[in-house]
Amino acid sequence: MTRREEMLKAIRSFVASNGYPPTVRELAAILGVGHSTAQRTLLELIGEGSVERTAGAARGLRVKP
User: Fold this and answer.
1) How many domains are contained in the chain?
2) Beta carbons of 52 and 46 less than 8 angstroms apart
3) CB 31 within 8 A of CB 39
4) pLDDT of residue 65
5) What is the domain extent for residue 35?
């Protein structure tokens, strides 16, 4: 499984468990990577259109169907 796939799975799982999306720091902790690695992977997912981010919101992530 690629890091992008792991992150998508982590976001979906976090939302299912908590009812709201994770922060980048929480994603980094879940995946066992540094903040910058999590941020870079998230930006890649946003760039390819798999994830949407609401500007200015700490928990503004949404995985597209």
Assistant:
1) 1
2) yes
3) no
4) 83
5) 3-63
Arithmetic mean of pLDDT, 10-38: 96
22-48 burial, b at 16+ Cβ within 10 Å, e below that, comes to bbbebbbebbebeeeebeebbeebeee
pTM above 0.85, yes or no: yes
Neighbours of 7 (CB within 10 A): 25
DSSP 26: H
- Calculate mean pLDDT across residues 7-27: 96
CATH number at residue 18: 1.10.10.10
Q: How far is the C-alpha of 33 from the C-alpha of 15, rounded, in Å? A: 20
Closest C-alpha among 17, 26, 18, 19 to residue 7: 26
pLDDT higher at 46 or 1: 46
